[in-house]
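Key idea: predict the complex, not the pieces.
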Amino acid sequence: MRRTGAAVVAALAALAAMAIVLALLGHPPARTMAILFQGAAGSSFAISESLLKSIPLLFTALAVVVAFRAGVWNIGGEGQFIVGGIAALAVGGMIEGGAVASILSLMAGIAGGAAWAWIAVLLRNLRQAPEVLTTILLNFVAVHLMGWLINGPLQEEGRRYPQSDPLPPESLLPAAGSTRLHLGIVLAIGAAIAVHLFLFHSAAGLRLRATGLNVLAARWSGVRTRAEITRAMLLSGALAGCGGAVELLGVTGRLYERFASGAGFGGIAVALLAQLHPLGAIPTAVFFGALSTGAGALQRSAGVSAALATLGQGIAVLVLLTLASRMKKEAGGGTAIFFRRLFRRTLRDSESAS
Amino acid sequence: MIGLIEVMLLAGAPLLLAVLGELVLQRSGALNIGLEGTMLAAAFGAAMGASMGGSAIAGIGGAIAGAAIPSVVFGLLVFHRRIDAIVVGVAMNLVAAGGTTLLYQHPRTGRRLAGGLPSFPKLEIFGIAVDPLILFAWLAAPLLIGALLWKSRPGLRLRAAGENPDSLSYGGFPVARYRWMALGVETVLAGLAGAAVAIGLAHGFAENMIAGRGFIALSIVIFARWSVSGAVGGVALFALATALQYSAQAGGSGWGYQIFLAFPYVLTLMILLAVPGIVRAPAALGK
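Result:
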């Protein structure tokens, strides 16, 4: 309950900070914030657009949740998202359109994201190269790889713009009514529930969280921490890659330069505001999705840069971190209790096995 | 050949300044993923300063002031609230990217920062015109940082904050003071790096103009194994590769050059893969 409270306070603080920034830039804050809210949730179309924007954020946020819970810093959601999109396009373009094609595309996206994350985990396991840096570098490699593909091998037939040909419409995910909101939202929420069940209601999830809380204590409790970290990183990449495939199959239908447009770092912000809780990531992703939809409307009607949403994301995270650090100080001792439980559980398992 | 080296020294200057700054900070036990954002804020500050003050020197003042804003927030949250430096750094990158783009696209501030800023006066040495930035980044800064870290008493304590903070505080020296000092050094150097990009290389500000240099600097710090000579060598290698990439781009034609843009990042990954054995970081890094 207190965690939810902290997230709400952080979100409100971000909105307040945005209003102050708007006022400082000489825009009437009441009127511009009203445009922002109208653009984000003022009509059923606006709401559907906000939800649409939250889908990629939710996938990349879940990727971050899984990785950070295991204590690995996967900052590479953006790259894994892009490679997921590339893989989905490549596979989707090879087969005749239809439901089978979209399922195979999705699976290719998942595999592509996991493979991209695997490079970072390989460097970590072989050379102790910190994944916090290698994943960032892999983001840039992915961006330029896509840039090369859409200017070269995968460029559209007409070779006019730096973008790929679209997938056949029958391969794309079905949309709801006249909106652009597509089946991906069901997949994203399903993924959030699955990650929640995995992390908090399965033995594998327990081992993963133990690794993240304290590597040494986890190892002494019988957890093979290196395998846990590898698995967490692959799962994380798979989720981000799935996000890329869903975005491709649900919204864009093709690759172009701004395909990822900040989904990676936005996902980190969502995950942090949700305090690494997979179900909490659903409302936070919607909040940030709405924020960027509203900022887009503000850019169109008042000429304020849509980067306002990025600023809001950053401020929300900073406020939340400050609040959470105070809560942690008061709580304390939680980790010790966790490991006592884990140790008892391992003991019980080994007794029942013998 | 001379042209290639000049491009290399010029392109490497902001990178080397950033690497040295981050190296000092990491030696004191803190890691700033937000370096990219700090440099971006500095580049914006440099453009503002140069445009308002009408000189490159004013630009440097603006750059350091711009870099100081994210640095102070980082220091307060990481050193005093004990919040994880990586997440603070990620958030600072978002704030810096959002904030500078917002200001840049604002009709009253932005447009005049886009170009035509005053440039640094060239220095004349043995009849050759040298960019003062190159001189400072490749000669003065490494010597100064080397002397600070290895030949001075505060430098010794700064490194102690990164290796064994407890012994430092038992000796009666507050750890936070030395980390703040290191952060101050990083702020000045990242500020100069931002000025080097906005004034030295581009003569104007552009959205996200740091383009990953901050992240590459973080990797080079590891490649350099936290040593000043390693930093100079790493940046030289990297800058040479970048300069070669430019000439390959200029020579080649068609779409193939796009893949060269990924080259610096692939190279950094290869370097990390090639570093044999365990990379030994300052013992208390990130603690």
